[in-house]
Amino acid sequence: MGINNREKSAAAFAEALQVIPGGVNSPVRALRSVGTTPLFVKEAKGAYVTDIDDNKFIDFCMSWGVFILGHNQEKVSKAAVDAVMRGSSYGIPTVSETILAQKVREAIPSMERLRFVNSGTEATMSAIRVARGYTGRDILVKFEGNYHGHADHLLVAAGSGVANISNASSAGVPNDFVKHTVVLPYNDTEALKKYFAENGDKVAALILEPVACNMGVVVPSEEFLKTTREVTSQHGAVLIFDEVITGFRLSRGGAQQRFGIKPDMTTVGKIAGGGFPAAAFGGREDIMRCLAPDGPVYQAGTLSGNPVAMAAGIETLNQLSRSGFYEELEERSNKFIEKLEKIVEGKGIQLNRCGSMFTLFFNDDPVRNFQDTKRSNQERFAKYFRNMLSRGIYVSPSQFEGNFISACHTQEILDYVLQSIKESIE
Ligand SMILES: *Cc1c(COP(=O)(O)O)cnc(C)c1O
Fold this sequence. Notes:
Blueprint: H1 7-17, E1 41-45, E2 48-51, E3 56-59, H2 62-65, H3 74-85, H4 95-107, E4 113-117, H5 120-135, E5 139-143, H6 175-178, E6 181-184, H7 189-199, E7 203-208, H8 222-235, E8 238-242, H9 254-259, E9 265-268, E10 279-283, H10 285-288, H11 307-320, H12 325-344, E11 350-354, E12 357-361, H13 370-374, H14 378-390, E13 393-394, E14 403-404, H15 411-425
Parallel strand pairs: 3-13, 5-6, 5-7, 7-8, 8-9
Antiparallel strand pairs: 1-2, 2-3, 4-10, 9-10, 11-12, 12-14
The structure holds pyridoxal-5'-phosphate.
């Protein structure tokens, strides 16, 4: 394992640059912030990815958290292939949409009604539109460093790839488009209470990552999470949990099950589509009733509820409902994290973790919000990334992302990773 040669990837990248801006279809994939160039993938299986130069890597990015069962899980892939052979899109309903919707609701009961879309971006965008339609209010409150996809009004103080550009916002978004978006610091209960005490009656929705994963993993205090529920209930605002990463990750029922808080609306994606472009938004029946054709809020999609994605999602959720799945994943993650804690102790590194997700920050002080994450030493992180890569391990290629342990990351693999982390940070 490890890099022997990256000639073919380098050539593929040079060619991609001639036709695709930055050579990639999503910015972080360019690996620019970690001072290198992308690997081009040939295939993946389980915890491993193989590039076109035949280098084999242990993957900790796992398509940004999609593959909790591992890459190319046999039954999931077969379900998708079978679906393709029956036709890949109709623009007419299929039973598979209802089946997957039922499975999502079974896992996340607060999603009393839900609708499928093609990406997490669409899911949050649609959820917010429904919340505004329902409340008749305009203001959206979000938290610094939380990422909710790339819709205009959400590209303010955003995490993920946006965090790598200077002011964590995007050019090309008119001020008028974001004038209804209010940004508060994550994990700051007092600021949240104060804002709602003064403005709560004008707020349509409060959206958050119930565990932040797009500024690296940042776990909220229990008090902070509880307060998001309290202030929104008090002021008639819609509480939206963006569980695009945490849904089916932190427990079968996501962060809301893990922390015992029931939002009004929820978005899921990544895991839910089994590796295909599917995501969903949903919530209380009386809120979701606002959607066309029942209500006045419009939302639609040519490929929404795509039968191939539905088939992969159904098979994925079937496997996740096996009893003991999350307990086993949690236990293996616990053991790994315990050993990792010892390795990073006294090394000027903060280990943030929730369940099977973790991030290393090259920072002396605890990391609880976006400002803290920005103090992490980017140069040290970049070096760590390249060191790990040279040892055959692809950790998430940005300080502002999480790493994901899957069902295929065996004890043996994790022990090799621990050894590599130890060597890399030394
Ligand atoms: C990935 C992500 C999104 C965006 O989903 P896409 O499918 O990339 O559009 C939104 N919210 C959160 C929390 C995410 O992690």
